[in-house]
Specification:
This protein is about 70% helix and about 0% strand. It is built from ten helices and no strands.
């Protein structure tokens, strides 16, 4: 069974359609975060290590698809910001992330657009929030292009390194690379939760009560 799976994987990695599939899946993933484009990009990175694909072409396809999807989400937020807010259930992690992103866009600007993409569903929420808060189109375009390229290169390089380390078995290479990506994402998520957790409130001790002695009663002459 594993031999058959290896044959299928080898054929997929060498396919001339792989780059187009990566770009299309990245577009959908930027709009619907449950689509696992990261796994496919990692797999393509493994193929690049084996010489079946060009690493630069994999990064270009992934970053282009990601940018197109993010810009589409930005336009949705810009045109339907009120409807987007109304669909978010108050108190849910996504609603809290949306509100926090809108606030950070006014203080940190584009930095949040670069870092939010490493949080699950973060780039989608950041794109919608940027559009809803009327973030400048030119500024968003630049930050999104840089961020999409950075994240695509990071994911593809994970696959490339796994493929180089386990060149004899692409299944192991893909598994190791996916495991490493999951571990890094989990650590990043833990650090984010620790940094955003509310600090414990320390109650000050009650002030001591100073009793004022009663004034002496005057004695009648």
């Amino acid at each position: 069974m594993l031999d058959g799976l290896r044959l299928v994987l080898d054929a997929a990695l060498a396919s001339q359609w792989l780059l187009l599939v990566i770009a299309c899946l990245a577009v959908v993933d930027a709009l619907l975060p449950m689509v696992p484009s990261e796994a496919l990009i990692i797999t393509a990175g493994v193929g690049a290590a084996a010489g079946d694909q060009s690493l630069l072409a994999v990064i270009a396809a992934a970053s282009l698809g990601s940018f197109i999807g993010e810009f589409a989400a930005f336009l949705i937020g810009r045109g339907f910001g009120g409807a987007v807010r109304a669909r978010l259930v108050p108190g849910t992690p996504r609603a809290e992330l949306f509100g926090r992103t809108e606030r950070l866009l006014t203080t940190r600007g584009g930095l949040i657009l670069l870092t939010a993409r490493y949080i699950p569903a973060g780039r989608t929420v950041a794109a919608l929030a940027a559009g809803a808060s009327r973030f400048p189109v030119r500024g968003y375009t630049g930050y999104s292009a840089v961020g999409a390229t950075m994240s695509a290169a990071y994911v593809a390089l994970l696959g490339f390194l796994g493929g180089a380390a386990f060149a004899g078995d692409p299944i192991v290479a893909v598994g190791v690379s996916l495991g490493l990506a999951t571990a890094i994402g989990s650590v990043a998520g833990l650090v984010r939760r620790l940094r955003t957790a509310p600090s414990p409130v320390v109650e000050a001790p009650p002030a001591p009560v100073v009793e004022t002695p009663p004034a002496p009663t005057p004695v009648a002459a």
